[in-house]
Design brief:
CATH architecture of the largest domain: Roll
Largest sheet: 8 strands, antiparallel
Oligomer: single chain
Helix content: under 10%
CATH class of the largest domain: Mainly Beta
Number of strands: 15
Structural class: mainly beta
Distance between the termini: 26 Å
Number of domains: 2
Number of helices: 1
Shape: elongated
Length: 291
């Protein structure tokens, strides 16, 4: 990479293609945990604000500003991540307690199925895991609370009379999902051949459950690194920030699921709010000189 020059020169143009954010959470005793890479970023910006206080004087006959000072400062690091896993989930949901990794959640389901002749129809293929060692490592409890009605909901059918229900069976990769099948019923009110029915059911899964929005504000230290392939290399470090969500988590986006965060820059006891690091040697004038 070319050495940046004083303006005006095309070596000064920057393309921050390798931007990363690292966060180290702060313990109650003030010590920091290990810095963590928060993962892929789809957007990041540093928002700095100087709030001014003007002084007015009428000494010369007209009331006018004769001095301006900075009365307060604010800085925010706004960014969006799309790897909502691990500790990033803790930062998103801010639980008060450690997540329960052995909780059970009842998945509610409803399907419209056509019962053709007496052929068995799978109720829900997701109700049986294919591999206990797979990515999700889902526990299996079988399908329960099965209720079968007509498409309009006016008629409720009876298991063993109007249809047969077969529970999911097997273990590991040999598991087979639960099914229902039509029974040829000669009386009134039965299920006709190829009739559409509505099947309501549930099945249980082991989950990791988070109690949301009850924990304290997450504080720590943050580093933003712009290791550009083109242009100068920059980095920012903030000894103390307060991290939190900033905006909606779109539960059904058109593209990738992501969450926007905001890290408010705080002032620690040292009074140093942050640093701007310039990795390259700039031919520049120092602050306080003729700039």
């Amino acid at each position: 990479m070319a050495t940046p020059k004083l303006p005006n020169h095309d070596d000064n143009y920057a393309l921050p293609s390798a931007l990363t954010i690292w966060f180290a959470s702060r313990n109650d005793d003030g010590t920091l945990n290990e810095y963590r890479d928060l993962g892929n970023l789809s957007g990041v910006n540093l928002e700095m604000t100087d709030n001014y206080l003007d002084h007015k004087s009428a000494h010369n006959g007209l009331l006018a500003d004769d001095k301006r000072v900075i009365s307060s400062v604010e800085a925010m690091v706004n960014f969006t991540i799309d790897e909502l896993v691990g500790c990033n989930l803790l930062y998103t949901y801010r639980p008060q307690t450690t997540p329960v990794t052995t909780a059970t959640y009842s998945v509610l389901g409803q399907k419209r199925l056509n019962l053709d002749d007496t052929d068995a129809v799978i109720i829900d293929a997701l109700a049986v895991e294919e591999d206990a060692d797979g990515y999700l490592e889902l526990d299996w409890e079988g399908v329960t609370d099965v209720k079968v009605t007509s498409a309009d909901g006016a008629t409720t059918y009876t298991s063993g009379v109007h249809y047969t229900f077969t529970q999911a069976t097997g273990t590991g990769t040999a598991r087979t999902p639960a099914t229902i099948a039509r029974i040829v019923y000669t009386g009134a009110g039965g299920i006709t051949d190829n009739q559409e029915v509505v099947v309501k059911y549930r099945y249980d899964r082991e989950t990791t459950s988070y109690v949301i929005q009850q924990g304290a504000v997450m504080e720590g230290a943050m580093r933003v690194q712009a290791l550009n392939l083109i242009g100068p290399m920059f980095a920012w470090s903030f000894p103390r920030v307060a991290l939190g969500v900033n905006g909606a988590l779109n539960l059904n986006p058109e593209e990738w699921v992501s969450q926007t965060f905001q890290a408010k820059v705080l002032t620690p006891g040292s009074g140093i709010r942050g640093y701007f690091h310039l990795f390259d040697t700039f031919l520049k004038l120092a602050a306080g000189s003729s700039c």
